Structures are given as structure tokens and as C-alpha cells.
Amino acid sequence: MAEPVLQINELVKNFGALRATDGVTLDLRPGEIHALIGPNGAGKSTLIHQICGTLRQDSGTIRLAGVDIGALSTADRARRGLGRTFQVSSLVSEFSALRNVMLAVQAKQATSFGFFRPVMRDVSLIEPAMAILERLGLAHRARLPAAELSHGERRQLEIAITLALQPKAFLLDEPMAGMGLEGSKALTLFLDGLRQEAPILLVEHDMDAVFTLADRVSVLVYGRIIATGTAGEIRRDPAVRTAYLGDRA
Ligand SMILES: Nc1ncnc2c1ncn2[C@@H]1O[C@H](COP(=O)(O)OP(=O)(O)OP(=O)(O)O)[C@@H](O)[C@H]1O
Questions:
Q1: Confidence of residue 120 (pLDDT cuts 50, 70, 90)
Q2: In what order do the strands lie in the sheet with 224-229?
Q3: What residues line ligand 1, using a CB cutoff of 6 Å?
Q4: N- or C-end of the chain: fewer Cβ atoms within 10 A?
């Protein structure tokens, strides 16, 4: 079996007496979408925060492409190839959609080549940034300030920015939230192709998207993974049905 791109081992995080993640072990293999589901308060966000470094784990390890990143800053983890979208927007709202993506393209070039140039004067950033906006169906909105985009378009723009950074693994935290039916369908189709570029750890409440996309699903309940398997296996798992899915399976 291929080496995992991301390997999380026995991760623990306590908030006082509450154990929010309780020995979580999971991996992300090349080319896959691994969905993480579970009820509200199960510890999904806490886990994502630990992987990307905004929260430090109490114990356990996080390896990206074989390297232990568990003690690195958030920025260093991103530089090493952890591509994360946030539940809370990371866009510069007064900048155009295009300029937001150009900044990300430039940030990637700067880590690769070690220098910065003024963004808007750098025409070499426009073409790759426009190509990414086109892939997300946002090219026609390129010149609008991010603040004027719809909620769904801003979520897509965040993915565009993450894509521009050419990560080794994507961490997508509820990308379908607030997207509407058509938006969710389009994003599902897009994510289906995105896994070829880098594997995706997908935290998502939209079960249609999860069961359509995920190669594997892990179910987190009270900070522990109670099952990992294919969509079919998870749907049939009696413990999962009791703890979470019920008649949604
Ligand atoms: N900073 C914090 N301090 C104290 N408790 C926290 C903190 N962050 C999260 N928790 C608690 O940890 C548990 C896990 O919360 P978390 O937000 O990770 O769950 P979640 O699965 O992401 O939920 P949701 O699906 O609602 O986003 C909850 O009981 C929550 O109240």
C-alpha cells in the first residue's frame, strides 16, 4: 500500500477535564478523499486545529510526507504543504478575487524561489491565478472585491487560494456549508477531481457529499474514532448508526 501523505497517531487534546480528542489515529493516502464525520462537539474542529497547528496537541504525532510537523508553527506547516480552508474566511475582502489568488500564487513562488515582487505589477501572476479561478468557475467574478462575492463564491475562492499553494494534502473544513443545492453539486464535482492533485481530509456535515465523494469515512464520537471504512461499510455499521447516522444512512 502507498505511504500515507498525512499520518496522525494517537492525538490527544484536553480542555481542562474535557478530552476533546482522545487518541485519534488516522491517515490520508495518495489520491483519496477521507471524510471525517461525527455529531456536533465530537472534536472534528479540534482535530483540524491540531493538524494545522492552531492548537497544540497534548500528546501524539502528526507526520506530513514522512516528516514530523507536530511542533511546527501553522505557517511552517503550510509551507511544508498542508493546504487548509477555514470555517472562518481568510480572504482579504477589499481585494479582488483575482488579487487574492495572485497573492497565493506569489506566496508559493516566493517559497519556491525565495523572493517577492509587487503583486499587481507582476503580470506573470495573472495567468496562473486566472487559470485557477477558471477551474473553480469564478473567472467571470475575477475583478470583483471578495466582499461582493456571494457566500458560496467566497468559499470557492478560499479553495482557489489553497489550490494556488499546491499543497501535498488538503484539509477542508465544511466546504459545503451555506453553498445551496446547486453550489454543493458543483463543488462536489470539483472536489471529485481535486483528489488527483492531492488527497483531501474532508470534514463535512453534508452526508450526500460525504457518501458521494469519500473513498473512506472515519466517524468521530466523543473524541474517539469509532469506525473507519468505505461509505457502504460506514452506512451499515451498527455502532455508527446508533451514535450518529440513525436514519440518515
Ligand atoms: N477552546 C476550547 N476550550 C474548551 N473547550 C473546547 C474548546 N474548543 C472546543 N471545546 C470543546 O471540545 C469539544 C469538541 O469541540 P469541537 O468544536 O472540536 O467539535 P466539532 O466536532 O468540531 O463540532 P461541530 O460539528 O459543532 O463543529 C466540545 O465539547 C467543545 O465544547
A1: low
A2: 82-85, 169-173, 200-203, 33-37, 216-221, 224-229
A3: 15, 18, 20, 38, 40-46
A4: N
